[in-house]
Amino acid sequence: MPNTLDLKRRIRSVKNTEQLTRAMKMVAAARLRRSQEQILAARPYAHRMHEVLARLACCTDAGHHPLLAERGDERVEILVITSDRGLCGGFNSSIIRRTEAFLAEPGRSDAPLHIVGRRAADYFKGKPVTIHSSYADVFRDFSFTRAREIGQDMIQRFMKGELDAVYIIYNQFKSAIQQNVVVEKLLPLVRIEAAAAVRHEYIYEPPPEQLLDALLHRHVNVQLWAALLESNAAENGARMVAMDAATKNAGELIDKLTLQMNRIRQAAITREIIEVVSGSDALG
Amino acid sequence: MSQGQIHLDVVTPERLVFSEVVDEVILPGSEGYLGVRPGHVPLMVGLGVGELSWRRGGRQDRMAVAMGYAEILPDRVVVLAETAERAEEIDGQRALSARRRAEEMLAGNPHKQVDIEQARAAQLRAAIRISVAAKKE
User: Fold this and answer.
1) Is A172 exposed, middle or buried (0-12, 13-18, 19+ CB in 10 A)?
2) CA distance A24 to chain B (A)
3) Per-residue confidence (pLDDT) for residue B80, from 0 to 100
4) What ipTM describes this predicted complex?
5) How far apart, in whole angstroms, are the C-alpha atoms of residue B34 and residue B30?
6) Which residues span the domain enclosing A235?
7) pLDDT of A238
8) Is CATH 2.40.230 the right assignment for the domain spanning B91-134?
9) How many structural domains does chain A have?
10) In a domain, A230, yes or no
11) B39-78 as b/e, with b when 16 or more CB fall inside 10 Å?
12) How large a percentage of chain B has pLDDT more than 70?
């Protein structure tokens, strides 16, 4: 039977943990709000971009652009987006599980990985997989420039014909308490539907083909940026929920331990009284 | 919006930087600067690195923009830039040190063509930001 001093120590330590998890929950909640705002802020750009692409698609030979060329699924690469830090529930493990499943599909076992976030990097380090590149601290110093850096290398190699397709595996932000693991094709780009009606007859400078080329490159980066934003929001949501649960568990544990401690204290007092009473009985 | 004005939107992947009604816009096209007044013919233009300025009443404001494109309609200008910073947001010290870094990189004889291009681009961007920040008030 543990004594009261041990229990007291235990309670104190659990209380400290509770404070910690509660603070982390608050931080995650604040970050979540910011990352949600970032998702919203990124929408106008993506929306406009799509409009212009659709318009350009109808006046150029867009279908033959190399970034849109379907070349089959021979040489596939995977971009895996996880977080740098843990303590966010099943956020990273579900991504890793999905990646393993993806690699297990026929002909994909040696697909090179591009990894964002330390969690996946640590996990795959000792595994028999090819890690092409690995990025850490993307979310700490979070900007579109970072997304472009990550995309650059893939775009260049795709254009050179060194790879046929790039898939991206990440957590999509559904709500603060729900994330969906999704697998999307980043390259080649999904065919862009030409705009049905042309409102204005534009003058183009530089010529539309050149403009389209530049825009498609940027489109890949925007897609990647959107995935990173989603993952960032999902991570903060997952961490908030995980830390909330941890805080609750800590509270329950404290209650249980306190009860146990009081029982022991009570038992000790009772025993002492019995001893005193029976002692005096024996004397009397 | 009264006749003879333009709605100017500046959007980056990170946020909507600017959205207001102005009288005239001057933007850095990839083939050179161009001025836009109300009633301009519809134009789609690539955006270079440079200074985007607009006039409203008697007041002229500016920001540093880099890479992207602009869509010009008779009553509307939409600038989609990869980066856009208003004069008051620019950290002069940081821009100066960025330019110094780029110059050092060029002076240090980089081997790869990519490095040279990157450093040149960084140098240009920093120079634009410095000049925009200098004209603040």
Assistant:
1) middle
2) 26
3) 92
4) 0.78
5) 10
6) 22-242
7) 95
8) no
9) 1
10) yes
11) ebeebbbbbbbbbbbbeeeeeebbbbbbbbbbbbbeebbb
12) 91
CATH number, span B6-88: 2.60.15.10
Q: B91-134: same fold as B6-88?
A: no
The residue written with tokens 């306190």 in the block is: A258
What dihedral angle (degrees, nearest 10) is formed by the CA atoms of A154, A159, A164, A166?
30
Catalytic residue among A28, A76, A88, A176: A88
- pLDDT-derived band at A195, boundaries 50, 70, 90: low
Q: Is A97 contained in some domain?
A: yes
The closest alpha carbon to A223, from A186, A194, A191, belongs to A186
On the question of pLDDT at A275 being above 90, the answer is yes
Min Cα–Cα distance to chain A from B74, Å: 10
How many interchain CB pairs under 8 A, A with B?
Answer: 70
A8-67 pLDDT per residue, tens: 999 999 999 999 999 999 999 999 999 999 999 998 898 888 888 887 877 776 567 888
Domain CATH for A221: 3.40.1380.10
pLDDT tens across B58-112, in order?
Answer: 888 889 898 888 989 889 999 999 888 887 788 778 888 888 888 887 887 666 6
Global pTM reads 0.85
Give the start-to-end residue ranges of the domains of chain B: 6-88, 91-134
Q: What was the pLDDT predicted at B110?
A: 62
